Amino acid sequence: MVSRVIPVDEFDLVIFGGTGDLARRKILPGLFRRFLSGQMPAGSRIIGAARSELEGDGYRQMIADAVAEFGGEESRNKKGLEAFLKQLEYVAIDARGEGGWSDLAAIVRQDVVQAFYFSVAPSLFGDLAERLHTNKIANAQSRIVVEKPFGRDLETARELNQTLAAHFDESQIYRIDHYLGKETVQNLMAVRFGNVLFEPLWNNHYVDHIQITVAETVGVGGRGAYYDKSGAMRDMVQNHLMQLLCLIAMEPPGQFEADAVRDEKLKVIRALQSIDHHHIVRGQYDAGPDGPSYREDAENPRSFTESFIAMRCHIANWRWAGVPFYLRTGKRMKARSSEIAVVFKDLGHTIFEGDEARHRNILAIRLQPNEGIDLQVTIKEPGPGGMRLIDVPLDMTFADALGDGAEDVTDAYERLIMDVIRGNQTLFMRGDEVEAAWAWTDPLINSWEARNDVPKHYDAGSAGPEDAMMLLHRDGRKWREIKG
Ligand code: BG6
Q: Residue 182 C-alpha to ligand 1 middle, in angstroms?
């Protein structure tokens, strides 16, 4: 498979928080890969901006180290790295004061695409947006990129939206949810809207239920202070899982275009019903052989924050009425495994005598690891012995199906940054979408806080608390196995 790299226009990308963790782990190694692939035009520049009083050479060395640490195979390309570093600059800046802004104004060009990546605490968004304008750096075509967490509830998200809207039009704002940049997440749209097979079945006549699982093996050690104020609901469900839910459940948009797609996603979020607390299970991991407990990781012995959550949701519209969507996500689980499984209904009647097994078609979209799709179908077990039926997966692991090309799966961040430069907002969240997502999650969080709900314990390395299993058992269903 030949990868098709479409060069973007020449750009100046300013990364506020350019010395931070995200910049070093994801943004710059990703940009380096794009540089190597030839997508970054020669004159383009990446300008790191942060508080540290660094010289350009000091910054370039920092990024060279980061690429060596986080850049994978490509980082061995020394010549490429040298050339890439020549396109990097650094400006020491005081986000809340005047220091450095005239230097930045002198560097950033007005006649190329301008993007400003706010890889900083949301409390600085307003200061940055304002100074970009008062110093006449940003213009009506500039783009700004903001990270999650986008607020911690509806009120704070609204405030952030208003702060940004004071200086930038919605068409200039790119709110990143890196799940939308994942290869398989985009494939989900290709599968749904590029095939005739699935659409007729994609509704409550044929679908029994849908499961969305995002299981991680990592704990929260190292970022416990942030995580303990968020929990799995704010950290994962309000954004990543809800985005997956939207893509699975939305109506086909008229075209694959930013507002058409986002309008349809918004309708799904608005159609989500509130959830009774009996249909939500929150959990916290215990210590295990591989690490401390959640409370130790979070350094909060009395924490009631959830590191795991499972829930049953319903979407109140004609397509999905009566179809449960089961969502679960957690840290320190038995495997790193994320998938969406569409479980179809049983056959109403079997013609095969003696076959009492319950055969089901399941379409499983694997996000990670082994990105791919498999469709469970029922066939005759080969060989003699009559009409014995078994379920087998028609497995399409992209790495097998697409050969070498599939190994080159782009990291979500690099894809999304290139979309910013291209001016394509399809894979970014619109302000109203984020607000609607908080409007749905806020009452659920408020309700368990008001009840002083205590999360259930679960063993590190397990599939989560027992109660999460019961959530489906009560409905006569079961979770799919979590396997890496
Ligand atoms: C982040 C969350 O947004 O996504 C983390 O803050 C989580 O807690 C991460 O670990 C998961 O991303 P991925 O791409 O590794 O599935």
A: 12
CB 188 within 8 A of CB 442: no
**Mean pLDDT for the stretch of residues 259-284:** 97
CA of 85 to the centre of ligand 1 (A): 28
How far, in Å, from the CA of 141 to the mean position of ligand 1? 31
Give the burial string for 153-190 (b: 16+ CB within 10 Å, else e).
ebeebbebbebbeebbeeebbbbbbbbbbbbbbbbbbe
Pocket of ligand 1 (CB under 6 A): 148, 216, 235
Amino acid at 9: D
β-partners of residue 184 are none
Reduce the DSSP state of residue 368 to 3 states and report it.
strand
207-215 sheet: strands from edge to edge: 389-397, 372-380, 362-368, 337-344, 207-215, 325-330, 308-313, 280-285, 456-458
- Interval 168-212: pLDDT, tens: 999 999 999 999 998 888 889 999 999 999 999 999 999 999 999
Using one digit for the tens of pLDDT, what is the confidence trace for 62-78? 999 999 998 888 778 89
- The yes-or-no answer on residue 240 being catalytic is yes
Average pLDDT over residues 47-66: 95
Which numbered atom of ligand 1 lies nearest the CA of 240?
A: 3
CB atoms within 10 A of CB 114: 22
Task: Give the residue from 357, 440, 409, 438 showing the smallest Cα distance to 175.
Answer: 438
Spatial neighbors of 301 by CB under 8 A, at least 6 apart, are 295
Name the residue of 175, 178, 297 to mutate for ligand 1: max ligand atoms within 8 A of Cβ. 178
Q: Report the largest interatomic distance among the alpha carbons of the chain, rounded to a whole angstrom.
A: 82
Taking a C-beta distance cutoff of 8 angstroms, is the pair 414, 427 a contact?
Answer: no
pTM (predicted TM-score): 0.94
Bond preceding residue 369 cis, omega within 30 of 0: yes
Q: What is the pLDDT of residues 402-447, one digit of tens each?
A: 665 554 556 889 999 999 999 999 999 999 999 999 999 999 999 9
Confidence of residue 3 (pLDDT cuts 50, 70, 90): low
Our CA angle for 180, 235, 263, nearest 5°, is 40
Instruction: Report phi then psi at 358, rounded to 5.
Output: -95, 105
Of 22, 26, 175, 216, best ligand 1 pocket probe by most atoms within 8 Å of the beta carbon = 216
Give CA torsion, residues 349, 350, 351, 356, to 10 deg: -140
Q: Looking at this protein, which amino acid is placed at residue 312?
A: R
| Torsion angles phi and psi, residue 201, rounded to 5 | -100, -5
Using CA atoms of 240, 478, 216, 320 in order, give the dihedral in degrees to the nearest 10.
-10
> Which has the closest alpha carbon to 263: 255, 154, 198?
255
Give DSSP secondary structure letters for 22-58.
HIIIIIHHHHHHHHHTT-S-TT-EEEEEESS---HHH
